[in-house]
Design brief:
The structure holds 2 protein chains of 2 kinds.
Chain A lengths: L16 H18 L1 H4 L7 E2 L10 E4 L2 E4 L7 E7 L6 H16 L6 E7 L7 H11 L4 E3 L3 H10 L4 E5 L6 E5 L3 E4 L5 E5 L5 H11 L2
Parallel strand pairs in A: 4-5, 5-6
Antiparallel strand pairs in A: 1-10, 2-3, 4-9, 7-8, 9-10
Helix pairs in contact in A: 3-6
Chain B lengths: L1 H26 L2 E8 L8 E10 L5 E7 L3 E11 L5 E5 L5 E3 L4 E4 L4 E8 L8 E8 L5 E7 L3
Parallel strand pairs in B: 1-10
Antiparallel strand pairs in B: 1-2, 2-7, 2-8, 3-6, 3-9, 4-5, 4-8, 9-10
The chains are: A alpha+beta, B alpha+beta.
The structure holds copper (II) ion (CU).
Copper (II) ion binds next to strand 8 of chain B.
Chain lengths: 210, 150
């Protein structure tokens, strides 16, 4: 009985350091939540190019006249090489880029896709324009004389080769199907391989436009 | 006498129906699912059809040819990455796609596809394009390929 009536614990016995500890924990939690993710370097889905060399300018022909890479300084350029007869790889990539731009919202205005035809014999500028604009009205298609296209492809390590088929295709053009991402200052910064997918492309572009 | 003839006719019909059913059940070994093609502009003269082909039969079969009123010519193709790291395309080696017994073969972007050359119909979103596949053993099968995003 005397036990239960023991004098109440004095209030001051609550350790003084407890609120301080709680405060520190809260600050640590906030730091971990908001700051740490920003400190971790972004992992690109594409392959990052370390070179600070500006990419070489070029001029080819679109349905609306000459197009130079330098026309798009200040925007991200996705430089792609393909051809309109290509039924599988090129439509997949162009549709993926279109979906990625959709995800970027307003930021998509700072991205320009240019498709260079590796089949200048069959792809007229008009045909190319109709082809690329089907996937996204902002896409630009360019072509030129064989040797001009070859020179531009070589600048970007793009390999392509036409080969005859016994079938009805006439000939097919095998080609590097990588998206070359050129930054706002004209540096080739990123290579996005075939089959990377819209979400992964959008994430990389979003980070580059941060 | 007339009634007797009728009976024979009925019996013959029943026999024919039975044989027909057996033939059909053999065809049921091949199953096509998820047949689609990507929308493409009319200026693109070629298109590709993708699908999953399942061979439920007990014996291997092979897809040997295809035809479509939507295409001037149909070929069996494959896309692949070549030794240059470039994406290449060619008619399938041997001209056929093997369908192992009890297995599925997936025709998908960047791999196997049924190639539609000289498109005669538009690959507009929502269109259904008729395609007939010819097999080594199973009977021809005709179905619609839906034009849509994957
Ligand atoms: Cu093909």
């Amino acid at each position: 009985m005397t036990d239960t009536q023991a004098k109440p614990r004095p209030r001051s016995s609550l350790p003084v350091w407890l609120p301080v500890l709680l405060g520190i924990l809260v600050i640590l939690a906030l730091f971990a939540w908001f700051v740490l993710p920003r400190l971790r370097p972004y992992q690109f889905n594409g392959t990052v190019i370390q070179s600070e060399m500006p990419s070489t300018n070029f001029t080819l022909t679109s349905a609306d006249g000459p197009v130079s890479l330098s026309d798009y300084r200040g925007r991200l350029v996705l430089l792609y090489f393909g051809y309109t007869f290509c039924p599988d790889v090129c439509p997949t990539t162009l549709a993926d880029v279109n979906k990625a731009l959709d995800q970027l919202g307003n930021k998509a205005e700072d991205v320009q896709l240019i498709m260079v035809s590796v089949d200048p014999a069959r792809d007229t500028p008009e045909k190319l324009a109709e082809y690329v604009e089907f996937f996204n009205p902002t896409f630009v298609g360019v072509t030129g004389a064989d040797e001009d296209v070859r020179r531009v492809a070589t600048l970007y390590n793009v390999w392509y080769e036409a080969h005859d088929e016994e079938g009805a295709s006439g000939y097919l053009v095998d080609h590097t199907a990588t998206l070359n991402v050129i930054d706002e200052e004209g540096h080739l910064k990123l290579l996005i391989g075939y089959g990377t997918g819209a979400d992964a492309i959008a994430a990389d572009l979003d980070y580059m436009l941060r | 006498m007339k009634r007797f003839k009728t009976r024979w006719a009925v019996a013959a019909l029943a026999l024919a129906a039975t044989i027909g059913t057996v033939a059909c059940s053999e065809d049921a070994g091949i199953e096509i699912s998820d047949a689609w093609g990507r929308p493409s502009p009319s200026v693109a003269t070629a298109g590709a059809f993708f699908m999953t082909i399942t061979n439920n039969g007990a014996e291997d079969d092979a897809l040997v040819a295809a035809t479509s009123p939507a295409c001037g010519t149909v070929e069996l193709h494959e896309s692949f990455m070549n030794e240059e790291g470039a994406m290449a395309m060619q008619p399938v080696p041997g001209g056929e796609i093997t369908l192992p017994a009890g297995g599925s073969v997936v025709l998908e972007p960047g791999g196997l596809h049924v190639m539609c050359i000289d498109k005669l119909q538009d690959f507009t979103e929502g269109a259904d394009l008729e395609l007939t596949l010819r097999f080594q053993n199973a009977d021809d099968t005709t179905f619609d390929v839906e034009i849509r995003e994957p």
